[in-house]
Amino acid sequence: MGVSSMLDLLHIENIAVIEEADITFHPGFNALTGETGAGKSIVIDAMGAVLGQRTSRELIRTGAAKAFVSAVFSAVPELPVLRECGLDAGEGELLLQREIYADGRNACRVNGRPVTVAQLRRLGAALLNIHGQHDGQQLLDEEQHESYLDSFGRVEGYLATYGDCYAAMEETRRKIRSLQMDEAEKARRMDSLQFQIGELERAELKAGEEETLRQRRDLLRNSEKFMSAVQGALWCLSGGDDGGGAVSALREAAAALAPARNITEELGGLHSRLEDLQSEAYDVLETLRDMADAMEFSPQELDNLESRLDQLYRLKKKYGATVEDMLDYLDQCRKELDRITFASDTVERLEKSLAREREQVMKAAALLSDARKAAAKELERRIQDELRQLDMPRVRFSIVFGEKEPDPTGVDVVRFLMSANVGEELRPISKVASGGELARIMLALKNVLAENEAIGTLVFDEVDTGVSGRAAQRVAEKLAQVSRRKQVLCVTHLPQLAAMADSHFSVEKGERGGRTYTSVTELDRDGRRLELARLTGGADPTPAMLAGAEEPDGGTVRPDPNVRLSYLPQNPVFPKEHTVLDQVLLGLEGEDRTLAEYEAKTILTRLGVPMFDQPVGQLSGGQRKRVALCAALVSGCDVLV
Questions:
Q1: 59/78 Cα distance (integer angstroms)
Q2: How far apart, in whole angstroms, are the C-alpha atoms of residue 147 and residue 149?
Q3: Which terminus has fewer CB within 10 Å in the chain: N or C?
Q4: What global pTM score does this model have?
Q5: Cα–Cα distance between 581 and 597 in angstroms, integer?
C-alpha cells in the first residue's frame, strides 16, 4: 500500500555550511550517512525550517543575505488544514517555500500563495514528522506520558467535554473566592465603600454639570464687559431717547423707496431687501434687550459657583477625571457594597452550583479515564510487540494510573513503567532504561503513534544513538518494516541501518576557496559499498571490509534498489481479535484489498491455513508464521528474510 503523501524533493540554499543542494528522496527507506560534523543534521534543520518550525538567523550561511528552503510533496490527500488555511493541493502536489532573512523576517509560500509561519507549521505537521535524537529524553518526563497516551487513544472528544465542564467549575470557584474575605477585612471594606458612597451622594452630581458651571462662571467674571458690549449694540440699533438708531434708519429707508418700488423691478428688489434688513435688525435688538434684562450680576452667585467647581475638583482627584466617571464609580461602589452585604447568600448559591458542576466534572473525568484505560491496554500490547521486534523480548511495559485532584487534563496520573530483565519489578523508565533501551522504547512508541496518523513521511534523526550489535539490526529491520507503509528518512551512523535502505545519501563536508561546503549525493551500488565499509571499519576500508559490505548475511547492499524485502519474525504476534484474512490484508483498502483477497485465500489454502474467518489468537505458532508469510507474499515483496 502506498503512503498517503511523500517528500519528493528538498532544495536548500545558504543553510549553515550548505550553499546549495537538491535532494531527491524516494519511496521506502532513505538513509543519510556521513562523518560526524559533515552536516547531516543541517539537512534535518532545513526540513524543520520549511515545515514552519522555529528557526534562528544564525542558520543563514555566513555572508548570505537570506536562506531559502523548498520542499515538494506528492500524493497529498485532502487535508483539513488545507481547507482551514484556504489552500488547495490541486493534483495532490504541494510546494512549500520559506525564505529566512538576516533581519529576522520570514517569507512563506505554499503553491506560490503567501502564508504565515504558523500556517506553514500546521501544514507541515500534517505532512512530515521529525523524530530527533533527543526525543527519547522526553520519556523520562512523566508529565509527557499522558499526552502520548491521549495521542494514541484519540480521546480528544472526551478531553474537550471534560475541559468545558472543568472551565465552568473553575469560573464558579473564582467567583466564590472573589466574595470570600475575613470579617475584619469585610468590615473595613464596607466602611470605606459607605464613606465613598455617602460623599458622592451628598455632592448630588449631575452629568454635564461641570461644563455648565464653567460657562456661567466665565460669564459672571466678564459681566461688565458683557453689559458694556450689549448696551453699545442696543444704542446703535435703537438710538437714544429721540430714536435715530439703525432700526429706525432702515425703516425710514424702506418707507422712502416704497412709492417707487413698482417703477422698476430693481427698485422693487431693493425695497424688499430693506424690509428684510429692518426685520432682522429688529429681531437682534429685541434679543439684546432680553439679554440685558436677564443679566443680573451677583457677587454671591460667583462665590457659589467657584465653591461648587472647587468641590468637583477635589472629588475628581479621588473618584474620576470627569463627573461622568465619578457617577460610574458611585454605581460600582453601590454594586460592590450590595455584593458584600449579600455575599453570604451569593456564596451559598454559588457553592450549590459548584457542587453540581464538580459532579459533572467527575462524570466527564470518569469517561475520560475509561477511554484512557482502554487505550492503555492496547498501547501496552502494541509497545510490547514492537519491543520484541526490537530485540527486547523479555521487557515488560506497563501503563499505570494514579489519581489527582481535577486539573485541566483530568484526574489521571499516567506513568509508563518497565522491567528490562526477568524477575525485576516494574519501575519508572527513568530508573531502569539504558540509553539504547530508551531509544528503542521511543522508536516503538513513535511507530505505534505513527500508525494512527495520516502523516506519510517519518524522519529519524540519529534515533539509533546508544544502540549497537544485534539490537541495531533489529532497529534497522523495524525501520525497513515501517518504510513499507510510510516514507522513512533516517540519519544514521550505523551500517546495519544504512544497509537496509532503499536509497542511500552521503553527506560530505569539504573546503573550497577558504570556505566550508557540504554536499549531499545519492550513492550508486559502488558508492554504497564504500560508504558501508567506511561505517564499519573507518576511513580507509580494506578489501575484506569491502567484501563484507557485499555479504547478504550482513544485511548490506541490495542488488537492486527496487527490490522489496519482508521480514518474518520467529514468533509472530498478532491482535487476537483479528481474523486470518483481516491480518493478511491489513493495511489494504478499496480496490487494492479486493484484488488481493482472492490471491490471499489461494495462498492460505496452499499453506494449510484455509480457516479465513478464524481469529488468529486461536492459531498455533506454526500457523501464525504461515499467516505472516502469506501477508508478505500478498504485499508484493521480492525477498523474504
A1: 33
A2: 5
A3: C
A4: 0.58
A5: 8
